[in-house]
């Protein structure tokens, strides 16, 4: 399955917007609709949540039952989301990625940081 950067951003934005994701409770999901998301299959949703958990952006776990447990964003998750939150920055990052078939999330994060530095007039 291919990584979908827009879906990753959408999942992270949703988690950040929910006060219930404060790290003190666990939420179990098997489908995007359970989180209030649409436009992807349950398999795509669980897969992308699992990637975000493995990369340390979401505090949670993947179960053997095809579920993901979400508690909230990690500090690294908040930092990454802060870099890709702005729609203009996100559009610029995606434009710079162009027709590349895929890149590591770490590259996406670096591109976003570069775009933010440009907006702030930093080298």
List the keywords.
mainly alpha; 5 helices; 2 domains; globular; 3-stranded antiparallel sheet; Arc Repressor Mutant, subunit A; single chain; 123 residues
Task: Describe it.
The chain is built from five helices and three strands. With 123 residues, the protein is mainly alpha-helical. The protein has two domains: 5-74, Orthogonal Bundle (Arc Repressor Mutant, subunit A), CATH 1.10.10.10; 79-120, no CATH class. It has a three-stranded antiparallel sheet with strand order 1-3-2. Strand 2 and strand 3 form a beta hairpin. The longest helix is centred in the C-terminal third of the chain and has 16 residues, at 105-120. It is globular, with a radius of gyration of 15 Å. The termini are far apart.
The profile of the biggest β sheet is: 3 strands, antiparallel
How much of the polypeptide forms β-strand, as a percent range?
A: 5-15%
Kindly provide the name of the CATH class of the largest domain: Mainly Alpha
The average pLDDT is 93
The helix-strand sequence is HEHEEHHH
Low-confidence stretches are none
Q: Figure out the total of helices.
A: 5
- Within CATH, the superfamily of the largest domain carries the name Winged helix-like DNA-binding domain superfamily/Winged helix DNA-binding domain
- Per the CATH scheme, the topology name of the largest domain is Arc Repressor Mutant, subunit A
Number of strands: 3
What percent of residues adopt helix (DSSP H or I)? 40-55%
The coarse silhouette is: globular
**What would you call the structural class?**
mainly alpha
**Spatial strand sequence of the major β-sheet:** 1-3-2
Write down the Rg: 15 Å
Number of domains: 2
What is the CATH architecture descriptor of the largest domain?
Orthogonal Bundle
